[in-house]
Amino acid sequence: YQRRVHGIQRIPQKMLSSYGISPQFVFGVRTDIREALHFWDERKVLYVAGHNVVEFNMEENQQKFYSPMDGSVSITALTLSPKRVLMAFAETQKAKSPIIHIYDNTQRKRRSLIPTTIQANNVLSLAFATTKDERSILVLYGAPEFALIYWRWDSSACEATLHLNVNVGYPKCSFSPVDPGICVLTGQKTYKFMKIESRGDGKSDTLAFTEIHNALQWKDKEICPHSNEYLTHCWTNDATLIIGTDQGELLVVDSLGFLVAVKKLPSRIESLVPFSQGIIAGCKGPIVYTLEFNKDNMAEPLKTLQSYPFRNQENSIVCMGIKPNIEGTLLCIMSNKQIIKLGLATKKKEKLISGFHSKGITGLDVCVRKPLIVTCSEDKTIRIWNYLEKRQELKFRSAEIEPLSVAFHPSGLQIVVGCTDKFYVMNVFLRTLKASQDTISIKQFKEVSFSHGGHMLAVSHTNTLQVYNFYTMEMIPSLTITPAKIQAIEWYDDDSGFVTSDQVNYVSLCQLDSQPVNMVISNKLTVSSVLKVPDSPIVLAAYSDQTIKEVTKDGVTKKLDLGCNPSQVAITRNQKLFFVGVGEAKMPGTVKYYKFPLT
User: Fold this and answer.
1) What mean pLDDT comes out for the span 487-510?
2) What is the per-residue DSSP string for 384-433?
3) Is the pLDDT of residue 11 over 60?
């Protein structure tokens, strides 16, 4: 839930545990974290989606989640140990130093929690040591100190520290696969080849970083020009280091840290992963290359085996991961927030789960009679999802339609899509949507909502609300509700009216056969969402003073202090719990739940 919560709808009661909620499935992926795609085994893959580390089982189509602590702002790094037993991810904390979590694959329990002893806002890169017990981890911290620390994670002991005092772009740290004492740090204009070794008098030895090289130099050759914009690197199985640059160069570095050869590819190198024959390079284009490593021919140590171009040249490859043991499957996270599954033998490309939205979601609604959800996005697509089968049913995009909001008819056979100057009625078919002729022009369109029976449709524009007979599209006389733009619409259970809120301070109770009753709670507050409690005169309203207020015609009867800014509100059908979507600036979107009625 990395983004602010823009919408929240009622969900089936069987999907809730007793007074507890947890994610069941997430459609989406983060693309702002590099090197954040790993195979835990042949079936399970790890990546970051929203504010969780996701473990996706490709055979069972199931997800499990690893969540940060309360107060966390963002996940910034993810790594896997060489034996694929341990997973670590780093999170930033609001007004606190970052924290690193270590999890065990066998028990799925957190093994350790590493605090931070230096002044740093985030963690830039993580790498497990290649020791037998894998109990050490290398951590690269960001501003303001920019330090590299070698941790003994099982005791949270800091064993060695190297202060960099400089910002590193595209940073990555790692260990040699054959010598756990050798580590390397690369980034823009940064190359450090180091050894972690013991120092002392033999009685009280301590570990320290020893820089073997702080610049990349040729071995037994005159200096030849190459780019020092090091974007990524990886190790081959025999401890040869391969570094990728912004000029498409693959720099081959020997076990002593010297540059011994250069292989030129046509475009910028975004990601590198090793495999049994050599390395796989993800380049701008986007295009993937497999290259065979030949240590006996250092004049041309890397030979291109295959190339796998992608169609959409506007995208780029963020990171890659190859299936262990059975190396025929490569996963790629793309810059347009898609996970692509590439068959190296067949060259077949398909989406790992389904297509995801590539930009923010602006509208969401749940079908009453079918297990379907409809969403629309800033990427100009409309998608329908099956939340029981955990799959995308269809994707629709039209150059003529730029959706801002969406509503599902209770039958699941039609949707209404709102745009800036009109709304469309669209029929839902097996694999597509088709617009009917019922297209009505409305300036400054804002919200749309079906009545519970599906026979009426409420549409807001500015401070006016129009109600239509959905089957004839005849308009019932419009209502001028409030002085400001209408923010939310909630129908009564019997469809005799609705409750609305605006962007200023009004909560309005409206009957279709009478004028609305406006209730001003405070001239200094704004209302982001309202909810009519079924079979009750109570309205729950989310206010900008970090409260949920219980409102009736007589005014405010109760209030609940949240300590955070609510953006949306929903209630279960048995009226025992209600949910609040939280929209805090620079904080991940959160869904909280509370008992109802308020006390």
Assistant:
1) 83
2) EEETTTTEEEEEEE-TT---SEEEE-TTSSEEEEE-SSEEEEEEE-SS-E
3) no
